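Appendix B. Chain record.
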Amino acid sequence: MKPVYRILLGFIFVIALFSCRTVPVQQIQISRSLTGRAVLSEKQLITFFMMNNSLADRGQVTRLARYYISEAYDEGINSDVAFAQMCLETGFLRFGGLVTPEMHNYCGLGSIDTDHPGESFKTEQEGVRAHIQHLNAYGDTDSLVNPLVDKRAKWVTPRGKAPTVFELSGTWASDPAYGKKLDAILSKMESVR
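Structure tokens predicted for this chain:
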């Protein structure tokens, strides 16, 4: 074999070897801070949700993802955390507790017992806005940008008392493992492409 052909075959071999090599994919890192920067896109939120409830109305999930990103951005809240909390609180929109779908209450606001089933909101967007505003009361001390729809925000004292999902245990929810449950959902969300 002529030296030129050997060089050419060697070059082709090297190209083939490196073109078939698997490039490691970096895992997404989601902040656990209520005011941290969100990293997931609308499409990624929808994909994650549908992986966990394939029977859900995709149109509703799309609207909710869009509202969570927009409303959270306005108020300086991490939409990844808020969306994860909605998934936890509603059982991925399966509900099944005191709060019902027509209440548009995606975070269990005011849901205590049968005498206090929770707050109701007129629209999906208003329900998401109330959720974001309540997270703002827990995680931030800044004033709101949008008109107040969360009547329960005034009861959060001091404002900013829960800067991460972990401090929501025993404050937002009485469950001492509440922050760990949110963290587990966020960890699953980190693998969405």
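Further analysis of this model is presented in Appendix C.
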